[in-house]
Every structure is written in structure tokens, then in C-alpha cells.
């Protein structure tokens, strides 16, 4: 059926998406459940996802507002019982701050501006969630009901409110609120000063909101002082009255206002039963927000037409994978994961040829993206985007190069501007992987210049700044510790910098990525230099007495086994030399000893799939002659960490990486070393999967290649007995990117018991 059946995870029957919002038919989109990953008992125990509506990579996502969001809190949580409005959010992940949001809050009777006062009760029985359409029926505070429906394009929200037996209807447009700083104290707030402009003739309420919660951790040299989120709301019904509200005080008939705790409102005729609002959003100006509105949802376009266009964009992407042999909940997990990988990671920042750059507070021409979490996405999410959104990669890379030109460095974790969150310079890996896989239509000269600077120029005050996680009042972190002992002796000193063990390993991997890029750009001397550093430096922190990688102080002394790690520990990071697994195996005593060490890691409860440093570890068995053990562990991890409920992600989605792990694993292979061009074979989950790749933006064809992964009985038989790629037997548990994108057929023969396939191969 083309009608979406969403499991709302309640005792009642699931609610159907109306047929008018199920066009075009798409089995893939029908199995997206945006509620997956919204639950959890804590910020770190949640997927951090929200049931938002927007097309892939949208500048703004629209979501029902059940709480006020800040770092560690999302705008919607399934456990809440009231809805306080509908928010155009730019919060890219649960552990990042909100920026320049706008909230549209319907109501009836007395105008309520305060967040708590305006909340309306609802039941999940009266809620519909999908990738392109959301609706909920709420209890109006003074009686009656309000039905809210929404869809969106990239830069415009489309909302429709139906008033059923209510008092005088109104819509509140919130520009500014109290902004929570950090995550530890919700009472630690600042008050951004915004603006509201009301034009009753054009039926518009426009304004700006300069809130940007992550400003406290931006580099001091590029503070983005002029940044604001701008909006322009256009209604389809005339106002009966209007006004500006500030800190709870209404100024009737006022058409402008500025300052803190600011909103505008419009009342409508007492007899009105329905009003539609289109909300243009911009990072440039109110005029640009108005232009975006006119371009993306012009006057006269229905909500149904907007939802159809957005659903079509999702169907085009998600429909490229066809699954056979999956139960309904497995299809929900798979297609929701696909949805997550393309949802807002990164998201569009340009607006029809122009973009605002916070690095130099200037509007430029070109394409731009923000919301990069490179420490997370370099592992598998970026490889997934290269396969299924190759048309986006050149613009994404060029955007990073523009960040370098305007701010001086490639981004680490960009949220409007750099935030210094996480460690290392993994843009080096993203760029190298793109070039390795044939995507070169960006400025290669600048790309080399930028990654070379990453690897050879320490940050300012490198010897005197710790660069701790979310440290305030510092400049660009980049490779903090580069000038301590890393360049001379091979490690980052734990007595000078935070997370020193992880930094040593991540910098070494990024050096490997740069060596690959140098080789591709015909720079043999540079390639040899960075390759040597990448293979030597990780083992400068290998403690032969313990068999673990451990952080060291500048003196060379061991800093302690619990010191120096990023979202992991010595167990996870001892396996984190993906560019030289043979070297790691050798130091651990060979294949047999290494496999026993992996067993100890898993059986001892050390594997933490909720954080990214563990994601590649189950695949290392395959590289040590124990492929069947990889197959066992991958299946266990998938079963324990993913399901089709609100608690269906064991850890934060982290900009698509959690889902990318699942997707690659379900197909039967994973990019352990992303810049090697190889995938390590695991265990395909389904009887048959067909991948229809989008056409390359650099080819002369309008059709991409097709790959069928045949694995009969895979749902119940997890072990690989044999593999042929286009008729050629594969004996080692590796395939190449070229094997994948050239298409054809991968034929697995599966077994219910461990097999010897791949086990004799020492990689």
C-alpha cells in the first residue's frame, strides 16, 4: 500500500498518514519512522533524533515543540504530553546548540506568550509522523481542539492550523527567548535581542533571532558577531488584529518591536476555521527569507503539494535500495537509518547563490553547508554519502575549503562557525576519500594547502592551552599538541593537552589520509613523509608491558591507563590504528593472540557501540583470520543497539554515523579504513538487496549502476560460506569501492554455523 503505517509505540492502533500525503507511492518512505531514536533515559542514552519534516540536507527542519531545546535537550521528546508550538530548528545534534530558530504557536482565546502557559495537551493516538508530513490534534486551552499539520522545503516551513470549536483563533510568532548556555545548568541563560515587523496588508510577520547557543565555544578570532536567523511568515487569511508581545506584555496594534523575550501575533476572525502559514527562513536577511518563501512555496501552493514535493525527494533517495527478506520492523530500522544519514548532516547554508559566512561576517557567492561533525562522520557516514549523494560531495568539500579561506582552517565541528568540539582534523580524511573515489570537482590546490596546514601548523598558544572539551575563550583548536612532542617524538603530551592518547591516534590517521591525498596529487615526497608519520606515531604510545596503547607525558612517562581518551577508553583505542592493522596485530603477538584480545574486549563488556571509536572493532576479526567471529559480533551488535522503537538507537545518532554503521553492516561490508578504498566483509542481513546508485555528477549518463547483493537465508544464517563478485570467487574478506560502484552481483552463500571462508587469509 502507498499509505504509510507508522508504529506510534503506544497501546493503541497505529495511525495512518492521510492518502493525500502519501503521494507518490514509496515503500521505502512508508517504512521511515521518525520517532526511532527520540527516546532514552538520558541525553547520552538517546539517539537524539526528532520527528522533523524537511527534505534531505534541509537548511531548516520543522518539528513540534514539546520542550525548549539547548545543548543536551532536543525540541521534542516522546515522553512529553504538551505541545507549545512548531519550531524551525537548526540544532544539528543533541549535543550542539540551537541557532536562530523561529517558533510558530497556534492558540485560541487569550494570547499566551510564555512557553509553559501556551502548552496544549495531546495524545500520540492523534499524531502522525512521516518524513514529509506531520500532524497532531491538540486540546485548546480554553476549549475545543486545534489540528496542526506541517511539511517543509529546505528553507520554508508550511503549516496549517484547523480550529475546531475554539474561541478566537490566533498565531504567535516567537522571535527570541531566554537562551540556555551550555548543558549543565538550564538557569544559566542569556537574552538575545531580536526584532519583529508586522505588515497586516501583506499578512506577514517577519523578524530576526540572533540566538546562537554555541557562541560561547566559538574561536575568539572569528566571533560571527553579525549573525542572525531571519524569518518571514506569510498567512493566507487577513488579520482581525495584531500586536507585539515582549516579556508577556502585549502592545496591541503595534507593528514593530525589538529586544528580548519578543514575539508578534495575529488574531483572525472568530468564525475562521483554518489558516495556513508559510515561513521563509534565511541566514542573510528578512528580504532573503521572503525571497526564499516565494521561490520554494509560492502563493497558492497547497500543503499537499509541498508534502508531495518533499516526499518525492525522499522517495528518490530511499527508493534506491530495495530489500527482500526483511520483516516490517527490520525495514523500519533500515529505511529510518537511511533517512537519518541524509536528514541534516551537513545542512544547506546557501540561499540561491549566496551564503552568509560567520568566519568573516560577510555574504559571499557560492554553495555552503554547515553542521559538520567530522570526528563522527569520517568513519562511515561520509562513505555512505559518496555512494548515495555523490552530487552533494563537491559542494560540501568546496564549502569546507571556503571555511578555510574565510576563517583560516578547515572545519572540525562547524555549527554556523567552528566550535572546537571533538578532536583532530578529519576534514583531511573527508577530502582524501572524496578524491580517492573519483570526486575531484573542487579546488584541489586549495584542498592540499588546507590539509597540509592542518598537519604542520599548531594552533596559537599550543604549549599553554589545554584545549579541553568545550573550552571557552580559546582560538581554533585544530591539532592541539602538534608542537609539544608529536612532531619530534610522535605523541601528544598528556600533561599539556586533554585527550592526548586519542589525539595521537587520530592525528596519525589523518596523516595517513594526507599521504593518500598527496599520492593522488602526485606529490611523492609529501606522501612518503606523512605515510611514515602515520605508521610510526601510533606505536610510540604502545606500552609493551601492558599490551595497550596508553597516553604519555612530555617526559615519556606513561600518563595512566584512564587518561587521555575521547568518548572511549584504552580498550577501544588500542584497536584504533585502522591504517595499520597488520602492524597492530604484530605487536599483539600475531593473529591468534589478537583474536583472543578481541574476544577479551567483547566478552569483558568493553565494547561500547554508543560511541564511535568502537564501530570498526567487530570487523577486525576478519583482518586476523577469524572472519566468522566478525559475522557473529556484527549480528549481535545490530540486534542489541538498533530496533524500531523510540528507544531504537542505543547512543546519539551523531550526524548519521550510528545509522551508517547499521546500513553498511546490513549490506554485508564496512569501511574500516575509509581512505583505503576497501570494505571489510561482515554478514549481510537480508536475502537480497538491490542498490541503484545515483548517476555520478561527472559522468555523461543519466543512470547510475546497479548492484544486487544476494544472500539467500541470511536472516537466519549469519555465516558466510562463500562469496563471488560478478562470478569471481572472493577468498579474502575484502572488497573494493570499485567493486561496489561498478555494480553487478555479489553472491553470498550463507550458513547456520561458522565457516572457514576468509579465515586462512592474513591481511
UniProtKB/TrEMBL annotation:
Transmembrane segments: none annotated. One of its GO terms (molecular function) is peptide-N4-(N-acetyl-beta-glucosaminyl)asparagine amidase activity. Residues 31-282 form the Glycosyl hydrolase family 92 N-terminal domain. This is Glycoside hydrolase family 92 protein. One of its GO terms (cellular component) is nucleus. Pfam families: Glyco_hydro_92 (PF07971), Glyco_hydro_92N (PF17678). The keyword Hydrolase applies. One of its GO terms (biological process) is glycoprotein catabolic process. The keyword Transport does not apply. Residues 288-751 form the Glycosyl hydrolase family domain. InterPro entries: 6-hairpin_glycosidase_sf, GH-type_carb-bd, GH92_a_mannosidase_put, GH92_N, Glyco_hydro_92, PNGase. Keywords: Hydrolase.
Amino acid at each position: 500500500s502507498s499509505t504509510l503505517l507508522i508504529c506510534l509505540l503506544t497501546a493503541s492502533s497505529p495511525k495512518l498518514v492521510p492518502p493525500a500525503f502519501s503521494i507518490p507511492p514509496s515503500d521505502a518512505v512508508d517504512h521511515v519512522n521518525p520517532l526511532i531514536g527520540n527516546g532514552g533515559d538520558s541525553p547520552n542514552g538517546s539517539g537524539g533524533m526528532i520527528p522533523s519534516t524537511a527534505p534531505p540536507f534541509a537548511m531548516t527542519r520543522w518539528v513540534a515543540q514539546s520542550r525548549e531545546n539547548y545543548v543536551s535537550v532536543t525540541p521534542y521528546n516522546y515522553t512529553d504530553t504538551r505541545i507549545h508550538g512548531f519550531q524551525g530548528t537548526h540544532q544539528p545534534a543533541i549535543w550542539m546548540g540551537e541557532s536562530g530558530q523561529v517558533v510558530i504557536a497556534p492558540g485560541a482565546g487569550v494570547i499566551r506568550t510564555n512557553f509553559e502557559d501556551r502548552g496544549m495537551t495531546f495524545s500520540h493516538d492523534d499524531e502522525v509522523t512521516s518524513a514529509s508530513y506531520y500532524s497532531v490534534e491538540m486540546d485548546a486551552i480554553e476549549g475545543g481542539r486545534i489540528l496542526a499539520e506541517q511539511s517543509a522545503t529546505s528553507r520554508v516551513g508550511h503549516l496549517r492550523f484547523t480550529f475546531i470549536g475554539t474561541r478566537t483563533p490566533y498565531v504567535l510568532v516567537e522571535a527570541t527567548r531566554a537562551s540556555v548556555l551550555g548543558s549543565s545548568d538550564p538557569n544559566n541563560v542569556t537574552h538575545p535581542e531580536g526584532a519583529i515587523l508586522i505588515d497586516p496588508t501583506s499578512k506577514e510577520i517577519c523578524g530576526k533571532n540572533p540566538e546562537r547557543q554555541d557562541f560561547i565555544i566559538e574561536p575568539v578570532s572569528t566571533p560571527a558577531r553579525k549573525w542572525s536567523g531571519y524569518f518571514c511568515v506569510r498567512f493566507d487569511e487577513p488579520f482581525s488584529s495584531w500586536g507585539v508581545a515582549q516579556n508577556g506584555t502585549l502592545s496591541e496594534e503595534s507593528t514593530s518591536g525589538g529586544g528580548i523575550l519578543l514575539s508578534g501575533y495575529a488574531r483572525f476572525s472568530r468564525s475562521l476555521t483554518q489558516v495556513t502559514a508559510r515561513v521563509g527562513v534565511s541566514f542573510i536577511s528578512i528580504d532573503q527569507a521572503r525571497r526564499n518563501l516565494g521561490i520554494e512555496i509560492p502563493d497558492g501552493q497547497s500543503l499537499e503539494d509541498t508534502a508531495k514535493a518533499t516526499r518525492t525527494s525522499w522517495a528518490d533517495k530511499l527508493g534506491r535500495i530495495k530489500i527482500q527478506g526483511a520483516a516490517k520492523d527490520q525495514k523500519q530500522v533500515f529505511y529510518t537509518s537511511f533517512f537519518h544519514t541524509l536528514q541534516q548532516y551537513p545542512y544547506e547554508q546557501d540561499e540561491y547563490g549566496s551564503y552568509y559566512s560567520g568566519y568573516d561576517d560577510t555574504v559571499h557567492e557560492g554553495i555552503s553547508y554547515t553542521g559538520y561533525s567530522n570526528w563522527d562522520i569520517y568513519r562511515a557516514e561520509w562513505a555512505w554519502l559518496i555512494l548515495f549523494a555523490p552530487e552533494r560531495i563537491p559542494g560540501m568539500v568546496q564549502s569546507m575549503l571556503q571555511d578555510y579561506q574565510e576563517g583560516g582552517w578547515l572545519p572540525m565541528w562547524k555549527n554556523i562557525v567552528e566550535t572546537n568540539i571533538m578532536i583532530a582534523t578529519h576534514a583531511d580524511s573527508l577530502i582524501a576519500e572524496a578524491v580517492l573515489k573519483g570526486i575531484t570537482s573542487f579546488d584541489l590546490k586549495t584542498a592540499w594547502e588546507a590539509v597540509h596546514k592542518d598537519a604542520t601548523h599548531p594552533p596559537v598558544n599550543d604549549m599553554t592551552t589545554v584545549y579541553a572539551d568545550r573550552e571557552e575563550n580559546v582560538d581554533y583548536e585544530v591539532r592541539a599538541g602538534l608542537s609539544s612532542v608529536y612532531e619530534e617524538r610522535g605523541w601528544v603530551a598528556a600533561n599539556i593537552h586533554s585527550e592526548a592518547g586519542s589525539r595521537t591516534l587520530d592525528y596519525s590517521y589523518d596523516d595517513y589520509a594526507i599521504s593518500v591525498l598527496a599520492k593522488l596529487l602526485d606529490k611523492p615526497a609529501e606522501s612518503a613523509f606523512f605515510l611514515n608519520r602515520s605508521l610510526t606515531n601510533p606505536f610510540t604510545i604502545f606500552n609493551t608491558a601492558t599490551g595497550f596503547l596508553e597516553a604519555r607525558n612530555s617526559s615519556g612517562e606513561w600518563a595512566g591507563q584512564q587518561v587521555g581518551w575521547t568518548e572511549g577508553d584504552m580498550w577501544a583505542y588500542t584497536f584504533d590504528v585502522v591504517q595499520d592493522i597488520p602492524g597492530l596485530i604484530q605487536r599483539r603477538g600475531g593473529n591468534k593472540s589478537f583474536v583472543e584480545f578481541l574476544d577479551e574486549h567483547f566478552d569483558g563488556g568493553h565494547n561500547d557501540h554508543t560511541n564511535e571509536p568502537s564501530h570498526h572493532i567487530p570487523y577486525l576479526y576478519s583482518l586476523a583470520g577469524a572472519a566468522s567471529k566478525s559475522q557473529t559480533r556484527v549480528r549481535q551488535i545490530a540486534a542489541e543497539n538498533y530496533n524500531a522503537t523510540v528507544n531504537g538507537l542505543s547512543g546519539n545518532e551523531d550526524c548519521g554515523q550510528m545509522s551508517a554503521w547499521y546500513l553498511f553492516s546490513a549490506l554485508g561490508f564496512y569501511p574500516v579504513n575509509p581512505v583505503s578504498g576497501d570494505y571489510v566483509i561482515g554478514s549481510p542481513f537480508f536475502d537480497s538487496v538491490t542498490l541503484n546508485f545515483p548517476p555520478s555528477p561527472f559522468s555523461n549518463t543519466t543512470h547510475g549502476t546497479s548492484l544486487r547483493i544476494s544472500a539467500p537465508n541470511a536472516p537466519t544464517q549469519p555465516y558466510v560460506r562463500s562469496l563471488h563478485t560478478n562470478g569471481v570467487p572472493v577468498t579474502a574478506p575484502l572488497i573494493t569501492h570499485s567493486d561496489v560502484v561498478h555494480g553487478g552481483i555479489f553472491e553470498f552463500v550463507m550458513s547456520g554455523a561458522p565457516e572457514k571462508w576468509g579465515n586462512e587469509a592474513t591481511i
